[in-house]
Amino acid sequence: MVVWKHTHRDYKGTLPDGTKSIMTFRRGTELVLLEALTDEEIQYASARDAHADAGPTRRAQAYAAKHGLQWRRKLADAWLIGADAREPDRHLLRQLRNRLGPGWLAGFRLET
Question: What's the angle, vertex CA 30, arms to CA 26 and CA 44, rounded to 5?
Fold first, then answer.
């Protein structure tokens, strides 16, 4: 399922019996079985994923252009201490961190 693939590992898990679960917002944040997601939740997540696919690359490239050769270390440090909150597109940087995580940042390569 696409929702599982595009959900950060911090927001999904596998129960001891092998059943997949995922965090979603219903009456608050809830852990639900992947197979119990409603059509609306799946549609929302799919639309979110389609919109977000190109965004991380553009945002990382803009950050790199602004911060130079050490941009990756600076962004990782900013995420760690919350300094990304002072950046102009802070909500997009936070989305990168929350959605893709530091592991993505370590493996991401700028287009040349």
Answer: 50
